[in-house]
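Lecture 7 notes. Example A: sequence first, then its C-alpha cells.
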Amino acid sequence: MSAGLWHSGGLVCLIALITAPLDVLSQKTAKTNPLIEIDKRLHETEIRTESAVSELRNVNQEMATLGDQVSQLSDTISKQHSCNCDELTSLIESTQQQCKSRFKELAGQVKEQESEVEDRLNQMLETQLQVVESRINSSHNEMSAQITSINSMLESSIQELTFQVKTVRGKLEHYIGRVQKQLYAHERKLSSRIDELESELEKQVDQQSDRPDNASALNELTSRLDELFSRLDELSSRVDGLGNSSGPAAETALPRDCSDLPAHSPSGVYRLALGLPGIHSQPAVQAFCDLERDGGGWTVIQRRALIKPLLGFNRGWAEYKTGFGQPHGEFWWGLENMFQMTGPTDRQYELRVNLADSKGNRRHAIYGHFRVDNEANGYRLSIGNYTGDAGDSLMYHNDCMFSTPDKDQDMAKRIHCGRKFRTGWWYRACQSANLNGQHRYNRQTKYRRTTWNKWPGVNYYIPEVEMKIRPIKTTLSETTAR
C-alpha cells in the first residue's frame, strides 16, 4: 500500500519535471522560433528525463525497503502491548490506592496541626486581652480620681467666686440705688423749681406786657430758665458718670424697661439698660417712666404739649435716630432706643397713645403689638390689635419705614412726605396720623399740624400727645418665670 502511494507520487513528480521544461520551451519557441535552439532544448530535455527516471527507480526501491521495516516494527509493538497492558493497569491501580491513603494521612496531619495552632493563638489572644484590660482599668481608675479631684476644686472655686460676685453686686446695687434716689430727689426739686419759675415767668410776662422794656425782661427770664435746664443736665450727666464708673455689673443691674422698676417707684427719669440681660449693644440711656397712670410700667417714647419754649420737630434723620428734647418736656426718645427695647423677641410690647384737644377732651388708642425694626430696615413699624376710643388711625402706617425731611423712605410715588410735612414719621402715601406735626397754625401750616384723622377729624389739630410702651403682662410673666 505504501509502496504504491510512493510510486504514484514519483510518477506525478516525473510528469511535472517533463512538462515544465516543455512549457518553457514552447513559450521561448513562440517568441524566437529558430530550429537550432529547438533541437538543443529537446536534447537537454531527454537527458533530464532519463536522469529523473533513474532517480525515481531508486526512490521506489528505498520506499519498498522502508515499508517492510515499518511492518516488522508494527508487529513487534503489538506483541509487546498485548503482553504489558495488564501489568500497567494493575500498577496504576496500586499507585492510585497508595496515593489516596497517603493523601488521607496528610489531611489528618494538617487538621491536627491546624487545631494545635488555633489553640495556641487563642491562648495568646486571651493573655494579651487580659493584660490590656488590666491596664485600661488601672488608667480609668487614675483618671476618675483626677477628675473627681478637679471637679471638687472647680466646685469650691465656683462657690467662692459666686459668693464674691453676689457680694460685689449687692454693694453696687446698693450704691447705685442711693445715687439714683439722690438724682430723683434733685430732679424732683429742680422740676418743681422749674414749674415755679415758669409760672412766675408767665405772671411777669403778663404784668410787663404793657411796658416798653418787656422784651428785655422776657429775655432775662428765658436765660434764667435755660440756666436751670443746663444745671439739670449737668446733674444728670454727673450721675451718669457715677453709674458708668461702676463697670459692667452696674449696667446689668439696671432695669431693662420701666416695668422692671420696683413697685411704688415714683414717675420720673430713670436709666435703662436696653436689650437682653447681659447683652447690651449700647450704653445705658435715660427714659421717662410713667409708673402711676394707666396701670404704670410705661416707657414714654414721645411727648407733645404746649410747654414753652415749644420744641420744633422739623429735624433730620440723625436726630430722629438718637432722639432730642427733654424728658420732662417735649421730646422724641429715638428710633434706635425703640429698636433696642422692642427688637428682642422674648418680650412683646404694647403701645398706648393718649390724645387731648385744645378743649380738654381726651381719647386714647392701644395697640397690643408694637415693634420697631433696625436701621438697616428703615426702622420699619410693626403694629396691630387696636382697642380704645380714639379710632384706629395708626394701622394705615403699619409696615412703613420711617422718613424724615432729609431721608425719603415713604411709599408715595410723586411726593416726599417728610419734606412736605416737615417732620419725621412712618409715612405711607402720606398719612392718616402724624403725631410729630407742628404746633403753629396758619394757612401754610394747616396740613402740617399734629393730627389723628379718626378723632376729632381730618387735619384737626391735637396739641397734646403722649406715646408710651410696655411689655404685655403675659410675656412679662413668662420672661420672669424663665
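Example B, a different protein, same format:
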Amino acid sequence: MLLIILTAVLLLAGLSAPLTDCDTLTQQVQIQSREQFFGTWTFGAESSDIKGTHDLGKIFVRKLWGRVYPSNQSDHFYAFQVFRMTDTYCYSITSKLTLVNNTVHMEHPLSATEVLLKTSCPDCILFLSNTTIGEHTYRFLQILTKRPSLTSDELEEFKQQAACLNFNEPIILGPPRSCPDSPDTKIVDFNMAFIQSTPRFKEIFYLI
C-alpha cells in the first residue's frame, strides 16, 4: 500500500510541476511603451504551431535581424527586417505596427497581433503572435536580443516555453551577417511581392 501511495504522489508531482512551470514560463507581461521596441535586434530563435516548419526553416532561413524605429504618428512605429535565404540574395520587408491595449497590431504586409511574454533574458523581447495568412491563423513564438546571439541557458528557456505552448522544436538562428555583405549580394524588397502575390504565395512564403 505504501508503494502505491508513493507512486501516486510522485505521479501527481510529475504532472503538476510542469503546469506550474508553464504558467510562469508563458506569463504575459505589460508593454511599457513603443519605445522599448526601438533599436536593432537579432532574431535568436523561433517556433510555431505549424507542422513541418522546423525543417523548412533550418533549410531556408539562415540569418535574421531587424530594426524598429518610430513614425511621425505617436501611436505607430515601423519594423524593418532583413533575412538571408541564399548566398546571393538578402530579403527585406517593412511592417507598420500599432500599440493598443498592451498588444502590438500589424496590418501590413500581414495581419497579426503580438503580446510580450516573460523572459529571464535581460536584453530580450519575447513575442507570442497570432498571424493570419490567407484563410488560416497561426501562432508564432519569437525571441529577439540586442546581442549577436543567445546564451545556452536562454535558448533552453525558450525551448521550454515553446514546449509549454505545444509548439514545434524551435529554429535556432545564428549570429546575423550584414546584408549585403559582398558586391555579389543583392537585397530584394518583399513588400511589393506581397502586395502583388496571391494568398497562397503569402502562406507558402511565410511558413518557410
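Note on Example B: Residues 12 and 130 are 33 Å apart (CA to CA). The mean pLDDT is 77.
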